[in-house]
Amino acid sequence: MKHKSIVENVAKIIFTVCAVVAIFAVLSITIYMFLKGAPAFFKVGVLNLLFGTKWAPTAADPSYGILYIILTSIIGTAVSILIGVQIALLTAVFLTEVSNKKLSAVVQPAVELLAAIPSVIYGLLGLMILNPVLYKLEKHIFANSATHQFTGGSNLLAAIIVLAIMILPTVINMSVSSIQAVPQQMRAASLALGATKIQTIFKVTVPAAKSGIMTGIVLGIGRALGEAMAINMVAGGTVSFPLPFNSVRFLTTQLVSEMGYASGLHRQVLFSVGLVLFVFIMIINLTLMKLKRKELWKMTSINGKRRRIGDDVVYFSYICVRHYR
Question: What pLDDT, on a 0 to 100 scale, did the predictor assign at position 308?
């Protein structure tokens, strides 16, 4: 008994130390980013930095506007998430609810293998395969244009496609795990009330797994926002308005492209770009966490009242009746 108590106390100390280290790491990164990124806002001006459209740090009269870079990151990430999440969710549903075990045993390891592929490989494949295809499409669409600047296929559209592919394994794996964790009784309750299999999947099973799916989406957004190497290879690297066939630059690729030779105010502004990226990721994570908690409250309550742990079948019978009566 005494030995068991000692083990529990040691384990408690270890867990506490790990938690403190994790919190300290997050606080240290946050403080460092604000200390290094804030000075440039005062020197350049918040409006000039965030809403300026001209980026010319090495000119005789330097300009440090990053509005187009911010818009590129927002639009590129949002569109890639819209594309990738739908494909990932339907793939997860197929693997867990539709396909047979033999097919799932082949497809799921292949999906997991995608997560192990380095970013530079995605970028290389995009550069060698995707960019030439998009260049042919670009030449066809803008054949009679006198103003379009051809990009050779290195454009925003290429970056969106690569990002959508890169987030697939993360969202698929999290969604598969969440859907598999849904109790079989919930599916049975829905089917017993007359719902079809498709109705059960999308009205009962997927909503029940929404918490885990949202987690996968958060991780996917983090992957898309934080990706640099692959995007740097396929997006072109020009600071311009984010149109599909324009060469563009993301917040991450901005840091990769110029941090190596930047100095003085130029380097400080790049830290400000990193701070903007950091704040974006924090805002998105906090917003999705809040939505996740809100959905979790809805999923664990009936008519605004918290349900007991053993009420799962009753609750999902209630959901089924509400949808199919």
Answer: 46
Residue closest to 171 by CA, chosen among 159, 183, 179, 161: 179
In which region does residue 304 sit, left (phi positive, over 0), alpha (psi from -120 to 50) or beta (all else)?
left
Give the count of beta carbons closer than 10 Å to the beta carbon of residue 231: 31
Query: Rounded CA gap, 57 and 65, in Å?
Result: 9
Long-range contacts of 177-183, Cβ-Cβ distance < 8 Å, separation of 24 or more = 177/212, 178/209, 178/210, 178/211, 178/212, 178/213, 178/215, 178/216, 179/92, 179/93, 179/96, 179/97, 179/205, 179/206, 179/209, 179/212, 180/96, 181/209, 181/212, 182/208, 182/209, 183/312, 183/313
Identify the CA nearest to 283 among candidates 215, 222, 202.
222
Q: How far apart are CA 248 and CA 234, in angstroms?
A: 10
Structure tokens at 27: 């606080």
**pLDDT (0 to 100) of residue 2:** 65
Q: Rg (Cα) of the chain, in Å, rounded?
A: 24
Other CB atoms within a 10 A radius of the CB of residue 97 amount to 18
Whole-prediction pTM value? 0.84
What is the crossing angle of helices 2-44 and 265-299, to 10°? Answer: 130
**What's the pLDDT score for residue 288?**
77
63 forms beta bridges with 56
**Contact residues for 193 (Cβ-Cβ < 8 A; gap 6+):** 317, 320, 321, 324
- The mean pLDDT of 216-222, rounded to a whole number, is 87
3-state secondary structure of 236: strand
CB 122 within 8 Å of CB 231: no
